[in-house]
Amino acid sequence: MTAQYIIGIDLGTTNNVLAYADLNADSALIELLQIPQLVAAGTLDKRTSLPSFVYLATESESAEGAFDLPWATGRSYVVGEWARKRSAEAPDRTVVAAKSWLCHPRVDRRQPVLPAGASDEVKKISPVTASKYYLAHLIAAWEQQFPDAKIADQKVVLTVPASFDPVARELTREAALAAGLPADFILLEEPQAALYAWLTAQGDDWRKQLKAGESVLVCDIGGGTTDLTLVRVQDESGDLVLERAAVGDHLLVGGDNMDLTLAHSVAGKFAEQGTNLNPWQSVSLWHSCRSAKEALLAEGGDDTYKVSVLGRGSKLIGGTVSVDVNRSEAADLLLNGFLPNCQKSDRPERQPASGFQELGLAYESDPRITRHVAQFVETHCTVENSSPQWILFNGGVFKATGFRDRLLNVLRGWTSSETGSSDEESNVQSLSGVHDLDHAVATGACHYGWSKQNGGLRIRGGVAASYYVGIESAGLAIPGAPRPLKALCVVPFGMEEGSEAEVPGGEIGLVTGQPATFRFFVSNTRKEDQPGTMLNSWTEEELSETDPLEATLNLTLEDGETTSPESCVPVRFESRITELGMFELWCIGTGGEGEWKLEFSVRES
User: Fold this and answer.
1) Which of 228, 253, 288 minimizes the C-alpha distance to 13?
2) Of these four, 34, 183, 493, 515, which has the most CB atoms within 10 Å of its CB?
3) pLDDT, tens digit, for every residue of 456-486?
């Protein structure tokens, strides 16, 4: 069927949003889907966002039908606003930050590991399943409102962090297809989507603000992650074009860390009243402080917020125990803790593992986001263009003006020290025309899909990193020492989706007929390497290893049957980037033995 709508979906760490536009209209009139969801037992309401929380019910709750929806009955779980509220009361039954778990390299993300630390009586789910639940809810809500426009027949753009590695992208794709998205849906990086949203709001006026040779730093601080992207403005035959020049590492630091920091401070206030919280209460307090942060730091927010802690079970701890959190105190704590003033030469510090890692995620040991920004800017900005001239804020954290002002002032301080000007004279500016931080990614994704379908401004980009495959060196064995490993570039930075490249070089031996481990590496900094570039050595800052692929590859005979003799087949490489932005490495037998496709997969253990 011919698609009637373009749909943009923000699958967020904290909230999910769906935006859409009629493809048959003369212009892209983007609207937000009102998403029906339970906000209390038996109470259904519509919201423009679906909180990324899953509450796993007890048997008695499921039997009562408390989680029934217009399109589903007998549910043993609930997603959305009610699940978010339940997270403070029953944290051991509430799944949070499933999106961050999708890129956790030390667990099998298809296995039921969430909620982390829950007791055996809780039937856990996997990060992939939780993501599927969110998307399935959005699909059901869409098809209830548009029964004649099934989502499988529409054009869909789903966003992911720019820093998601191929494994996390593949798992996102898996969850999306399981939920019911069309097979040809498109993945778009979230910072690019945020910039598309700004471009949509500006219309043709964006050319009056941005000039050739300038660059835009997109800083997206969401609930669980910080995503950094650099976009350059180029002059092409007298016309301005935008090109995504760099993306940062996947930084697990964001609003969740701020909530925990506030919870530690509030726990001290409880201790002063003689109430020492046990581990269960501490997790509950963490969820409660999320609401406190949002209420206190929102523009025009409350001066104080009352935080209460309940006891486990039906009894309260010494009655109702509450403390008041002050707005200015919370703002000072979080600003100085996460966006402190720093020099451009400062770097994140490696610190011993903190207690926060008990939740299972590999959070950044240094939560000072300004230091991570300093490292990104100095790594990816050239001498001629030492700092970005513009910054675009995105993510729920920046709804508080104090965070925007602090980061802007830090960037201005770097520029003034380089040029000798005052901070007031610095040319670093925030892009004017404030866009909706809660819905920008979804609306930007929708605008991208419209432009792709109907023609319009596109941000050039391609893949956000260079990819390498590990090649074991030949040579004499040395007892106790592995053979040296080389890294062969198979995908260059910026390789466009839907394209393929032959990898020049000599023949490489491919092990068949026995289990083998294929190692892959990624680099956000080595942008000059081309397919065929062989690295004999590298630093951790240059290349980082992704999840390996473990597989047994067999030979295909002329009659189509497969055999598995242990051998080393000479092959050459072809790399392909699919329209989804997925990386495939094809090994082509040079003697006609066959061809094998290696896709990124999650290790089994």
Assistant:
1) 253
2) 493
3) 788 887 787 899 999 988 766 567 667 789 9
